[in-house]
Automatic annotation (TrEMBL):
InterPro entries: AAA+_ATPase (IPR003593), ABC_AA/LPS_Transport (IPR051120), ABC_transp_permease (IPR001851), ABC_transporter-like_ATP-bd (IPR003439), ABC_transporter-like_CS (IPR017871), LivM-like (IPR043428), P-loop_NTPase (IPR027417). It comes from the Bacteria. Belongs to the ABC transporter superfamily. The chain crosses the membrane at residues 43-66, 78-103, 109-132, 152-171, 201-226, 238-260, 272-300. One of its GO terms (molecular function) is branched-chain amino acid transmembrane transporter activity. It is found in: Cell membrane. One of its GO terms (cellular component) is plasma membrane. The keyword Transmembrane helix applies. It is a multi-pass membrane protein. Residues 330-570 form the ABC transporter domain. Its main location: membrane. This is ATP-binding cassette domain-containing protein. Keywords: ATP-binding, Cell membrane, Membrane, Nucleotide-binding, Transmembrane, Transmembrane helix, Transport.
Length: 573
């Protein structure tokens, strides 16, 4: 990669000696567009945010530059002012757009619609700006940086190269992998105690600033800015170039943008309308035949050679101390939950202490999964009160409930499909360590209990195996190890043995007994397999039609006439 970067630097430095003026002009612009394509790739390719809004931030940066240089003047200090404005104004706008797009409760579609609206609004503002923005004529005639064409070619080339190298290092770091984790499974990221919304807002703001920097370069290199520079047609072109180049690769979108823009400049004169049709047709063909873009032809060859990771046990023991054993981990009082007119949970009361493994059983639709949701997400509208470690969780989103010591394992294993086992486990540690922006360590430190689960289930030897290659049981075990690596006080397990073989079920049973009886975790287990429940539970709670009908020992439940009636389908509220 260093050799590639060095070759690119030499091309940028010596390019003006061999290229004609037309090519220099077009390529300087193409490289600026390539900077934008890299930002689109980080947002869409790596984080899964389909955005058309980068054009708006680019336009704002370009107009901020042109407006400073036109209305205030051009001097060395004013060029610095223009540069600061070109970065800061889009950055603040990006922060506001990010907040609007990713506030709690918004959907990915909503974020994409906002990214379509922003360029339209910015373009309208430019049209309505009168002499301040030049309206439909744009702005021209302001003084630009005195660099000449070769100077601009080299400046934009170096900026693109620096951005590409920074992006390339970043996407391999812990912070970069966290973006991929958000793309793969945002819910799991939240249930690891990390706020995806915060990360996405910060990313959008920073990349809006980078788009603004590209706008500064464009306004200086071209000497003209126009409303189309911030329009959603341009925003769509950026998405097309990124897709054609190969999203999620950095260099694919970079070369895609340069290649298509350069070809467009050469061919659009001779084939003005046909060329657009060719690009559009190519996009459709590519999406069908090569969804990974052109870069996937190259990356597929190199994908196999993954990096070797080591799983190390942290020195600290996770055993809950004797003092804490006295206080309830979870306390539920009068819990009720309705979906419209349908009342799913009614007047549930129970308390769970450290070391207890409480199984929640009941027929389908009894409200078991809903109960788990109410215990792990304080934003669910409920009646009554749920306290974790003595703190009412009302209003707290999942990542804040995780911070109180709750780990949730979902019914369908919730892991990161495009990562390796080691990478998934590394993501769990991001709550305890600030994600590094430039690197990711080879050794992954995990609590001993998590290491033990991996050992018992044979995953310690599969650290570098891709999650997509794991069996159903291995995925369940990996998710359990991830949840335990959070070092929670309370583990919520929704049918952890569903679809597992008898041997795998026994292993999970051993692991759960060890976690609760030996290490002092509290656990709530939703389970249909009553033999399994009988073997490992310290207490059993029976739910029926949303009501808690029995809370007792295994013996109590086995001998209960009510439970027998419920399971034979005879009890009705
Ligand atoms: N988001 C929702 N909107 C409307 N109704 C819901 C929603 N989630 C659950 N329900 C209803 O609440 C009831 C309880 O569902 P829940 O999934 O909690 O049951 P369960 O005991 O976990 O069932 P199972 O054993 O089949 O998983 C069901 O009637 C279900 O249809």
């Amino acid at each position: 990669m260093a050799a590639l970067a060095l070759s690119a630097l030499l091309l940028v430095i010596f390019g003006p000696l061999v290229l004609d003026r037309f090519s220099l002009n077009v390529l300087a612009r193409s490289m600026i567009y390539a900077m934008l394509a890299v930002t689109v790739d980080l947002l869409w390719g790596y984080t899964g945010i389909l955005t058309f809004g980068q054009a708006a931030f680019f336009g704002v940066g370009a107009y901020a530059t042109a407006m400073v240089l036109t209305h205030i003047g051009a001097s060395p200090s004013l060029f610095v002012l223009a540069l600061v404005a070109a970065i800061l104004v889009p950055l603040v706008l990006g922060l506001a757009v990010g907040w609007l797009s990713f506030y709690h409760g918004s959907t990915p579609l909503y974020a994409t619609v906002i990214s379509l609206v922003v360029p339209i609004v910015i373009t309208q503002l430019i049209y309505s700006g009168g002499i301040w923005t030049g309206s439909s004529s744009g702005m021209v005639g302001y003084q630009t940086l005195p660099l000449g064409l070769p100077g601009f070619f080299r400046l934009t080339g170096v900026c693109l190269l620096v951005l590409a190298v920074v992006a390339f290092v970043f996407v391999r770091s812990d912070a970069g992998r966290l973006l991929v984790a958000i793309r793969d499974n945002e819910t799991r990221v939240a249930y690891l105690g990390i706020s995806p919304a915060r990360i996405k807002i910060a990313l959008m703001a920073v990349l809006a600033g980078v788009a603004g920097l590209a706008g500064f370069l464009f306004a200086n290199a071209s000497g003209v800015v126009a409303p189309e520079n911030s329009g959603f047609v341009f925003g769509t072109e950026l998405v097309v170039w990124t897709a054609l180049g190969g999203r999620g690769t950095i260099f694919g979108p970079l070369l895609g943008a340069i290649g298509i823009d350069y070809l467009s400049a050469n061919l659009s004169g001779e084939l003005p309308f046909l060329w657009q049709l060719v690009v559009g047709g190519l996009f459709v063909v590519m999406i069908i035949l090569l969804p990974g873009g052109l870069a996937s032809l190259v990356t597929a060859r190199f994908a196999q050679g993954g990096r070797k990771r080591r799983l190390d046990a942290l020195p600290s023991a996770t055993r809950v101390d004797a003092m804490a054993l006295c206080a309830p981990v979870v306390s539920v009082t009068g819990l009720g939950k309705s979906f419209g007119a349908l009342s799913v949970l009614k007047g549930i009361d129970f308390t769970i202490r450290p070391g207890e493994l409480v199984s929640v059983v009941g027929p389908n639709g009894a409200g078991k999964t809903t109960l788990m949701r109410c215990l792990s997400d304080g934003t669910e509208a409920i009646e009554g009160r749920v306290e974790i470690g003595g703190r009412d969780i009302a209003g707290l989103p999942p990542q804040k409930v995780v911070a109180l010591g709750v780990g949730r394992k979902f019914q369908v294993a919730s892991v990161f499909d495009s990562m390796t086992v080691a990478e998934c486990l590394r993501m769990v540690r991001m709550r305890h360590e600030r994600p590094a922006l430039t690197q990711s360590p080879d050794a992954i430190d995990l609590p001993p209990a998590a290491i033990e689960i991996l050992r018992l289930t044979g995953l310690t030897d599969m650290a570098d195996r891709h999650v997509s290659l794991l069996s159903h049981g291995q995925r369940q075990a990996l998710e359990l190890a991830m949840v335990v690596a959070l070092e929670p006080r309370l583990i919520l397990l929704d049918e952890p043995t569903a679809g597992l073989s008898k041997a795998e079920r026994m292993t999970i049973g051993v692991v759960l007994k060890r976690l609760t009886a030996d290490l002092g975790f509290a656990a709530i287990l939703v389970e249909h397999d009553l033999d399994f429940v009988r073997e490992i539970s310290s207490r059993i709670v029976v739910l029926h039609q949303g009501k808690l009908v029995l809370d007792g020992t295994v013996e109590d439940v086995v001998q209960s006439e009510t439970v027998r009636t419920i399971y034979s389908g005879g009890a009705h509220a």
